[in-house]
Structure formats: structure tokens, C-alpha cells
Amino acid sequence: MGKWIDSLWRNYESAVKRQKELVGTMQVGSYVAIRDLETIRVMVDRLEVEMAALDKAAEFATQEDGGDAAVKIGIEEIRKKLGGFMRNVEELGVQADVCSRDIRWARTVVLQRIIKQPN
């Protein structure tokens, strides 16, 4: 009877160990994905600030009392800010690709661990 109970106990210990490893793998994958998503959030916040600056420059350029000089200054300001804005949009696209790749990697690792485990 003791050998049978010991055998059951070892099987349960083994199953718990495998599940613990799987949960650890899932935690690592989640951490990476959350970190990537936080980076994207920061980049989106930066784009919102830049969009507000572009909006203000457009409002300045379209003021009726400013005349042609205000339009020229406003357009020049928009051109300057648009370059940085477009760079940040491209960086956001790259970061979104990195995040997607990291999430796919984490999912693949977790699935491989699940498949590898004996029933």
C-alpha cells in the first residue's frame, strides 16, 4: 500500500512541477507583452501631444487677422512638426510589429510547453 501511495504522490508532484513551469513561462510571456504595450502607450501619448501642436499651428495659420504672414509662419511650423510626427508614426509601427512578434513568440513557447507535457 505504501509503494502505491508513494507512486501516486510522485505523479502528483511531477504534474504540479510541470504546471508550475508552464505558469512561469506564461508569466514571462505576459511580462514581455505588457512591457511592449506600455512602450506603445507612451508613443501614442507622444503622438497625441504632437497632433495637438500641429492643430495649434493650423489654427494660427488660419486666423483671419494674421494675414499672409501668419499663414506662411503657420505652414512653416506645420512642416517642421510634421517631419517629427511622421518619424514617431513610423517608430510606432515598428514597435507594434515588435510587440506582435513578441506575443507570437510567447504564445508559441507556451503552446510548445503544453504539447511537450505528458498527460
From TrEMBL:
Principal cellular location given in the protein's record: membrane
Keywords for this protein: Coiled coil, Membrane, Transmembrane, Transmembrane helix
Gene Ontology, cellular component aspect: membrane
Coiled coil: 37-64
Entry keyword annotation includes Transmembrane: yes
Alphabetical list of InterPro entries matching this protein: DUF677
Family matches, as Pfam families: DUF677
Subcellular localization, as worded in the UniProt entry: Membrane
Protein family per UniProt: Belongs to the UPF0496 family.
PANTHER family: UPF0496 PROTEIN 1 (PTHR31113:SF3), UPF0496 PROTEIN 3-RELATED (PTHR31113)
Name of the protein in its database record: Uncharacterized protein
Taxonomic lineage: Eukaryota, Viridiplantae, Streptophyta, Embryophyta, Tracheophyta
